[in-house]
Design goal:
The structure holds 2 protein chains of 2 kinds. By secondary structure, chain A is an alpha+beta fold. Chain A contains 16 helices and 11 strands. In chain B, strand 6 and strand 7 form a beta hairpin. The longest helix of chain B has 16 residues. In chain B, about 40% of the residues are buried. The chains are: A alpha+beta, B alpha/beta.
């Protein structure tokens, strides 16, 4: 019976996470599997929590395995503390008088903790329900003792059983069987109902874990912003493999914008010979653009035997790089630009200007004197429009600097970074000869480069993985800090 | 391929044929445009840039880029769809580029060649000899918009602000103000019929014809308003495109009342500077749109003299001028206290030259 159960559970997607880790079909009890996974985790690294989180299980086990995380003592302890804090706050706000300012901050904290506390409570209740179900499966005591279980009431209704007196619990299975008149067939049905119940409960608890997980991850300030995406070809000794590659990557992001129903507005496009691309920039706007693209910033490396261009003469594997920079776009108020700090260079600077001159060169160059940032634009025929675009790009770059300053203050050991530290790191390799893309930060590999470069599902899946990984790292950091402060 | 074929033919047929040296294939070789179907946009730009440079055409690269982009359906070469950079062009496209480029070789301004140009983000038709809007004038419009925004009572009520543009040319200033001030009305005036019809065409293109009155009128003929009114036949071209001849006794009886603003980019070039202008300007643009008389002040002073009778109380005049004019205008206004006009502000263009004047009417 239990073996069937194992197989059935293995096929069930919501439980795929921890079961996939090791299916031991030779174990008899369902409970045994459950227990083994737990022991496995704890046996490995009992002492160093972060070591565990960052190294072993994040690679070994499936990333959807939030339950694994939950089982970890650190997280449980953290949640307990939060729950306690929430309760004390509630008491505090109701009974103890506080002054206006404190009240506001306490209220804010209360509101922050409310959803977390609620989820925590629900998780605890659901876990208890699981335990009840397990014990019921194991030893068949009176159904009346498990009011939480839906199947109890179903069974009672179905079999028209009388509720036993809870003050007088039966001591043996036969007693129950005798009292309730269950025969072999009924037993089987009972098992099936128990399975169904288990199924729904597990679904529920997975959902709750995910909710908790999402609530715990600290929200990034700039996630909802639009971005300016810039690509620049790297340098190699001769050949134009970098430029070809840059164009392919830029096309990939353009297609991805389309796939996500974002708007893609070209700001700058400087092609190279033979169809390659030196550098280009685009403004991408839509829902949560920065959130998805922030981890695309960095150095992308390519390895291939070039088919076109100068490098294709010798059939050897060439390596090239290109860099991607993702800048969140600020609102006007976020970045203050003092006209005194700006110098605007235009072609018309020389000569009399005005009616005396008719020139069509409407290129604009903006120089921000304090930081030395230079932005050029010649996308439009109207000079004032070029100026607007240049201002927008300048604002985005300055905004990036502001964000840098913020982040630099947080000493982070994360693998997934945004900002200038990330800009110079090699994040991904595209190997055409072996037809795979590998992201070095999460050791993730994708096959079928051609499909990946189409900027559709392949890229989206990788980005989802990156986001999950980043969330996990964020929580790990959170717990680590909590532990440190607890000491 | 053609070149090699000819060389081969020359070698086979012997030197006697042509009379000239064996290197005839090279000496009589004319710079041929690339063959159809084998040339891409990038190659064409390089080719024509070279041709323009050789003939001393200024802005060689920019000109060829604009021409090629235009034929391929884009405004700038930068904004061309990247896929089109390397795609081979059809023979019709090549022919078109050849024709347009030959006009550039005649020093025709690019805006006239393309027949259109952008101003404040609006796309306007350009037809010689109507004056081509300059980038500085975009800043004049920006200033007017800022001022209007500050005077909140002027914005919002229908028909307000009521703006007079003197010397509308292609309609650039009028139409960009109309498009960014949805409640405004504009009276655009020009002494050239070509300018009137071009402004009308652009207004229709941008569907702004309902809020603009375009009048063929020479503001400088007869300073007295009385003479102006009785001796003039005024062509009033209204919306719906039907021209109506409209006689009016005097300005003060116009149905639209006094103006909130007068805006103008009047001819302000000093007469002695006219011959130093580039051939593009001298040969193709209307000199009357440029020549401002000895000190470039003629039309400016005309406008200022007429303004008090056309403007509301504390109405404003915004002018684009030569960098030498702010002082000249200031002293001229001081010599004419009867006008009750004050020079309120001088604004610099993006090159740092004093380019724009704000004059306000105050008094009876």
């Amino acid at each position: 019976m239990n073996r069937h159960l194992c197989v059935w559970l293995f096929r069930h997607p919501s439980l795929n996470g921890y079961l996939q880790c090791h299916i031991q079909l030779h174990s008899h009890q369902f409970r045994q599997i459950h227990l083994d996974t737990r022991l496995q985790v704890f046996r490995q690294n009992r002492n160093c929590i972060l070591h565990l989180l960052s190294k072993n299980w994040s690679r070994r086990y499936c990333h959807q395995d939030t339950k694994m995380l939950w089982k970890h003592k650190a997280l449980q302890k953290y949640m307990e503390n939060l729950s306690k804090e929430y309760q004390t706050l509630e008491q505090c706000l109701q009974h103890i008088p506080v002054n206006e300012e404190n009240r506001r901050s306490l209220n804010r904290r209360h509101a922050e903790l409310a959803p977390l506390a609620a989820i925590y409570q629900e998780i605890q209740e659901t876990e208890q329900a699981i335990e009840e179900l397990e014990s019921m499966c194991k030893s068949r005591q009176s159904l009346a003792l498990w009011p939480r279980l839906e199947c109890s009431s179903v069974i009672i209704a179905h079999f028209n059983l009388e509720l036993l007196d809870s003050s007088n619990p039966p001591t043996s299975a036969s007693q129950v069987a005798g009292t309730t008149g269950l025969n072999k067939q009924d037993e089987k049905q009972l098992q099936e109902l128990a399975l169904e119940e288990r199924q729904t409960i597990d679904q529920k608890i997975n959902m709750l874990y995910n909710e908790l997980f999402q609530s715990l991850v600290p929200k990034e300030k700039y996630d909802k912003n639009d971005v300016i995406l810039e690509v620049t070809a790297g340098r190699t000794t001769g050949g134009d493999i970098c430029q070809q590659f840059t164009r392919e990557i830029f096309d990939m992001y353009q297609n991805y914008s389309c796939y996500k129903h974002w708007q893609f507005e070209l700001l700058n496009y400087t092609p190279a010979d033979y169809g390659g691309l030196h550098h280009a920039a685009a403004r991408i706007s839509g829902d949560g653009v920065y959130k998805h693209l922030k981890y695309e910033g960095g150095i992308h490396r390519v390895q291939r035997i070039p088919e076109v261009g100068l490098s294709s003469r010798m059939q050897r594997i060439h390596t090239g790089t290109m860099s991607v920079i993702v800048l969140p776009q600020p609102d006007e108020v976020d970045v203050k630009l003092d006209p005194k700090d700006l110098r605007i260079d235009t072609f018309r600077a020389k000569g009399a200007g005005g009616q005396h001159v008719n020139k069509t060169d409407s290129a604009v160059r903006l120089v921000h004197i304090p930081t030395g940032l230079v932005v050029e634009c010649q996308q439009e025929r109207s000079q004032i429009k070029n100026k607007e675009i240049a201002f927008r790009v300048l604002r985005a770059r300055l905004y990036q600097q502001i964000i840098e300053k913020d982040k630099r203050q947080q000493q982070s050991a994360r693998k997934l970074q945004v900002g200038t530290r990330a800009q110079s790191e090699r994040i991904r390799t595209y190997n055409f000869t072996q037809d795979r893309v590998s992201d070095h930060r999460i050791a993730y590999e994708v096959r079928d480069i051609k499909e990946f470069l189409c900027g559709g599902k392949g890229l989206d899946q990788l980005i989802q993985r990156l986001l999950q990984s980043a969330d996990e790292e964020a929580i790990a950091e959170l717990l680590d800090e909590h532990l440190k402060s607890a000491k | 391929m053609e070149l090699w074929g000819r060389m081969l033919w020359a070698l086979l047929s012997g030197p006697g044929r042509r009379g000239s040296t064996r290197g005839w294939a090279f000496s009589s070789w004319q710079p041929q445009p690339p063959l159809a179907g084998l040339s891409s946009a990038i190659e064409l730009v390089s080719h024509w840039t070279g041709v323009f440079e050789k003939r001393g055409i200024p802005e060689a690269r920019e000109s060829s880029e604009y021409i090629v982009a235009h034929v391929l359906g884009a405004k700038t070469f930068q904004s061309l769809r990247p896929a089109l950079w390397t795609q081979p062009l059809t023979s019709q496209q090549l022919q078109c580029i050849r024709e347009l480029s030959s006009r550039r070789l005649q020093r025709m301004p690019v805006q006239y060649i393309l027949g259109e140009w952008d101003f404040q983000g609006l796309s306007l038709r350009m037809v010689p000899p109507v004056f081509i809007p300059r980038p500085e004038t975009e800043e004049l419009v920006e200033w007017v918009l800022e001022e209007v925004a500050q005077r909140s009572h002027a914005v919002g009520s229908p028909g307000s602000p009521l703006i007079l543009e003197v010397g509308c040319g292609s309609g650039a200033i009028s139409l960009s103000l109309l498009s960014q001030l949805p409640q405004s009305r504009v009276i655009a005036v020009d002494k050239r019929e070509a300018a009137i019809s071009l402004t009308h065409e652009n207004a229709q293109r941008l569907r702004l014809q309902d809020r603009i009155w375009i009048i063929h009128l020479d503001m400088t003929s007869g300073c007295q308003l009385g003479t102006l009114g009785t001796n003039l036949q005024v062509w009033l071209i209204r919306s719906r495109g039907r021209p109506k001849v409209w006689h009016e006794r005097s300005w003060t009886h116009l149905p639209w009342g006094p103006m909130d603003l007068i805006v103008s980019n009047p001819p302000y070039v000093f007469h002695q500077d006219m011959e130093q202008l580039a051939p593009e300007i001298r040969s193709y643009e209307d000199p009357a749109a440029l020549d401002g008389g000895e000190e470039g002040m003629d039309i400016i002073t005309h406008i200022l003299a007429l303004a008090p009778r056309l403007l509301k109380d504390s109405g404003s005049i915004f002018l684009e001028v030569d960098p030498r004019h702010p002082e000249l205008v200031s002293s001229w206004l001081q010599s004419r206290p009867d006008l009750y006009l004050n020079l309120v502000a001088v604004r610099r263009d993006f090159c740092g030259r004093p380019r724009f004047l704000h004059i306000r009417r105050s008094g009876p």
